[in-house]
Amino acid sequence: MTDEIEPGLFGLQNNTNRDFRLQETWGKNQFPSSFPASLCCYFYSKGINANYLCFRNGESIVEEISIPDIFGKKPDDEDTFFAFESVYTPFNRYVIGNLPRTDLVVQEKKSGICLSGLEIKLTALPDNVTCNSTENLYGSEIVVRPDTIVYLACSIATSLNGKLGNILPNITVDDWEIPYQVLIKASELIDAIDSISISLNDSQSPFLLQPIWKTKGKSPELSENCLDIFVWSNAGFCRFISEIAKSNLNGSISRQMRTVIWLFKMLEGIKKVGQFDHKLIIDSMSFNNKNDKAFASSGNITNRFMRCDRLSKPILKKEEIKNIILGGGQNLLSPERRFDAIIYNSPELFK
Fold this sequence. Notes:
single chain, alpha+beta, 9-stranded mixed sheet
């Protein structure tokens, strides 16, 4: 039966810009975003909601959110289209120059209308920092790109719907490119981002999709319950950034603090003129750090925000992976990354 089915992923057939018959589609640059989208489709087919990492009533909490609420449409609707590595065009109005592409844009196939734009991070649980901890303290490392912060600023502005000018304070710095002058205002900048998180209370929206795959400690063997989906709201992720920046105030500008500065300057641009120049902001405010990533947080940090029963025991069992990767697609994987390698080297999952 398997040989009669073309390689593919559940829910992603003729409704995507990726061709899963091609081996390149299963490579390290595409599979880590394709598989999470398929996993969402599978969750929907099983009536399972995702975990929603949001900031509500002054507290970072984990709720549930339905897959249609993440995508803006039912994933099995014949008019739903999954455009990977695409531009979420409603955000074009906020940027000077070209808007970066995001990992997944869910569209209406016929009209091309964009319904949601999602950053995707497929992460391992536990990471190297938490692998020797008890399971309730396991966490996943998350590495965030500068482009993610561009999309976060746009998402915040959209959710606040014109209210940004009344919320974001005016913070004056003589020269934003001189570290010590910016550091003087570090606490004010963090407080400003905190105020944004609070103001998004009733209008926050899904922003970043972070599925987890769990192994048995350090081993390359999947846990029996190994897959789940976590989704950060824009408010939840905004709060996450301000909290980790606050804990990294040490007399220099950390990557986390730099991210706060970038986000503030982007929002300030929207407040003042309706747009921001993301390339100028990122390049001129590197503060002696490389711009290849915005920041990274290890599992002992992310655990505080993601901790719940389903982080300790993910909802999906490993036996169901064969229902998501279809038609022998596992044989096209390039085992360059840990999750790919585990599936590639676990043929028993597909028996």
